[in-house]
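User: For my dataset I need records formatted as: sequence, then structure tokens, nothing else. Please produce one.
Assistant:
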Amino acid sequence: MLNESLKTVVADRILPCVQTPAQYVGGEWNAVVKDHRGLRGTLCLAFPDAYSIGMSCHAVQVLYDLMNRREGWACERAFAPMEDMERLLRENGLPLWSLETFTPLACFDVLGFTLQYDLCYSNVLTMLDLGGMPLLAEDRTMDHPLVVAGGPGTANPEPMSRFIDLFVLGDGEQSLPEVCELWVELKSRMRATAGLRMGATAGLPSSASLGNATNTAGQTGSGTQDIEQSGSGTRDIGQASSGVQPEREAILAEMAARLPYVYVPRFYRPEYGADGRATVPRPIRGELPALITPAVVEDLAEFPPPAAPVVPFVECVQDRIAVEIMRGCPGGCRFCQSTTLKRPLRFRSIDSIVQSAVEQYRNTGYNEISLLSLSSSDYPDFDVLVRRLHEIFRPLHVGVSLPSLRINEQLRVVGEVLNTDRHSGLTLAPEAARDDMRRRIGKPITNEDLYAGCRRAFENGFSRVKLYFMCGLPGESESDLEGIIEMAETISQLGKEVRGRLADVTAAVSNFVPKPQTPFQWHAMQRRDYFRWAHDFLFQRKKMRSVRLQCHKIEASLLEGAICRGDRRMGEAIELAWRGGARFDAWSEKIQPELWWRAIAESDIDVEKILHLPYPGDAALPWDHIGIRQGRAYLERACRAADQLAADN
């Protein structure tokens, strides 16, 4: 049911005073609005970044469609408010709301965050606080929503463990509905049991009584709460709360025991070695597993893509039809977390992909189709798929685009079939510029294939190429950095050989972060002095004006590394930074590194040990309780293989 009073106040007093007000009002084409009365449950998908970024996230569209097609459920959306909106909400004592019905976040049954990037974590706290929720999981009662989180951030959930009730590992299509259904079922049973005791709050029903009670639908309803200014509370954030409600804890324990892909941090005790470094957390309840296994959708056909995705009112990062064509990656890049997390490799059929593209075109009117995957050119019969799409969509002036391409023999034909708009350019991710370094990092491609593919693309009308590289890789030498400029300038020269003028080439260089759940997780990250030297070296070597060099901000990369490799103590630093004003830290113009480093220091976190010292190969890591499909042994073998290649060279 639409909250008309809140909507009226927002429309009259707030929206005229903020930039891009359309991002806060909902009502977009294909948005789903349901009356909450009589439903079994309500879910709000909370994306901790701006609307224009969150609406470009494929996972948001998929889960929104999935849950709204589920009988008895309403799924709505909320995004992190920009600073002007946050200030006005606090000044007016208004809560953060969902776009569909203007319902305060604290009034949903389940609040689901997607953790796409470590530097967005401060925005999670903003949304919890503005939504009327206690920041700490242990401060919540039965009247608060279940706060869950999924996405790449679950590779190491410890930094956010104090704020999230329950992490959902792996694919969300099957796991999220199961989590939501079980939460409302157990909550209803708990309340029914409490009602039989005449409303008494003393005593705790056993797990067996929860399992045998009658299933009754229930909903939370904590009501709108006044929102305090961030940092206005009197609680010492270094101290644990003692306000854990036993009924809520009993339900969470039941969920953790019944769902193998669920991680509830309160039931796992962090442990530390003699050197002060965190080791693997251990369960404190006998029925809980030491290793949590991710959910896996074995057959993508069971979950077709959304036929009618929401069409945003405002310009977004990705304004196009998006169709996932495969999940997983056949490569074995040793730096890549997504490759590890998204296995096994699964494909959608050509017919289902084409059907999805046609349905989405009819329901949205977009004029571009993006084929999503980690390595689209590795899709079987890739050229057949793209030609099928062009047969249908070229007469409609709808183009086909891809994310960055894998460099292999198929790259030679991509230029012929890829895009009706050649001005969009070709995007490639060689990661390293030397064949030997690419073998070391598990990316067995050759410069010969790359140059041949670029030549063919130029012959078919492309004039621009973007290349993604990394610096600071394990075993990197000066020749690896020289190779980046050499490769970019060689490709630019190839454009002149084919088209008569130098091709525009962008070399985007990121700073290597040894991510959890990758073969390089045992390696250290380079220090800022090295990255400064490497960036200067690259700019000094660049000679051609047709080559543009972009280097990622060093402090942002170091902070990303510290957070993603952090243990449970990092949560205190995240809260301190947020209370100090950290917001939208993934945005280069908004990040405040000094604020973050001060918060980390005040939390007594030794960045040197987390980030710049390697782990022994047999060390227990702070994220070892989070399972992956291949197991830790696979990561160990891949790491040893890379180290051996480095030693041989």
